[in-house]
Amino acid sequence: MKTEDVPSAYEGSIVVCVDGSDDDRNAVEWAARLAQHVHSSIRLVHALPDVGRWFDPAVLIAGAQLELELRRVGRKFLDDAALIVRDLDAEIEVECSITGGAATDLIESISTNSRLLILGGSRTGPLRDLIFGHSIIELVNAAVCPVLVWRKSRDESADPTGPIVVGVDGSQPSRRALAAAFDLARTLGADLVAVHVGAVEDADELDYGTSVDRQHQRDAERKWLQGIADPYKSEYPTVAVEVRSVGASVARELGTMSASAQVIAVGSRGRGRLSSAILGSVSQSLIHRAQCPVLVVP
């Protein structure tokens, strides 16, 4: 079996969307540390709101002044974020840009020429709805590159050197997520935990035998997953790998594992504007509830 032939998610430009939320500092610091590891530049992007959509026509009498003020605020967000990067490593190249337009179109555009896009995942940003006007699910679904949704651990004492956890169901997006997880684990010097997720697309690959009990099913799933993970060992010899199969709710189990993980990686179910119908239910659940950053790989 061959490894998934996809480009590394951690080569080239790392893009961070900056919106003035509580996530900005943590997300930018994480991006900067990744950039140090892979010798990458960082692009900081702030999206202007659609003034006509969000403000009463009476307010728009002073529309020019309003746009100038919004740009001033956005520039302050970017300057603060750039300072965070430079304080960590002055050698990292930082580019800042302010842009407008529909949020999903913006995400699709900036992700087209990027290898990793980082978005804040909390709902605490005072300007999130104003700037984006879309749910985080829609934004992730609009991206054409891997997206890391930043989520801060609820446990301040959590081990920052925890494993990279990846859910695999045999679909092409999940296999690409496995490849990206191996790459990230090597980059960060972390262990990798691969978890069997849901029904395997090619059921014939699983040898359940003639009589299926729960333990036998778990063993067959682990054996199947081990067969998918083993080909990566030659390319990633320094990454320690554990494979698991869980009998509980996959989203709940992965959510529990996220409490001790550095990052949890999953594949998306496709791209398009109808994200609620396209992005996988496990991915959606983790984006909203995980206790660590979530990497979604298209």
Summarize the structure in words.
- The structure is a single chain.
- The chain is an alpha/beta fold.
- The protein folds into two domains: 14-150, Rossmann fold; 164-297, Rossmann fold, CATH 3.40.50.12370.
- Helix content is 40%, strand content 16%.
- Strand 6 (164-168), helix 7 and strand 7 form a beta-alpha-beta unit.
- Helix 4 (103-112) runs parallel beside helix 6 (136-142) and helix 9 (250-257) runs parallel beside helix 11 (281-289).
- The radius of gyration is 20 Å and the shape is elongated.
- Residues 5-10, 124-133, 200-204 and 270-278 have low confidence and may be disordered.
Features of the shown structure:
298 residues; alpha/beta; Rossmann fold; 2 domains; 10 strands; 40% helix; elongated
Count of DSSP H/I helices: 11
Largest sheet: 10 strands, mixed
Q: Under CATH, the topology of the largest domain is which?
A: Rossmann fold
Identify the overall geometry: elongated
Helix/strand class:
alpha/beta
User: Can you write the helix and strand succession as a string?
Assistant: EHEHHEHEHHEEHEHEHEHHE
Uncertain parts: 5-10, 124-133, 200-204, 270-278
Write down the CATH class of the largest domain: Alpha Beta
Ordered list of secondary-structure elements with their pairings:
Elements: E1 14-17, H1 24-38, E2 42-47, H2 51-54, H3 63-88, E3 94-99, H4 103-112, E4 116-120, H5 128-131, H6 136-142, E5 147-150, E6 164-168, H7 172-188, E7 192-196, H8 214-229, E8 241-245, H9 250-257, E9 263-267, H10 275-278, H11 281-289, E10 294-297
Parallel strand pairs: 1-2, 1-4, 2-3, 4-5, 6-7, 6-9, 7-8, 9-10
Antiparallel strand pairs: 5-10
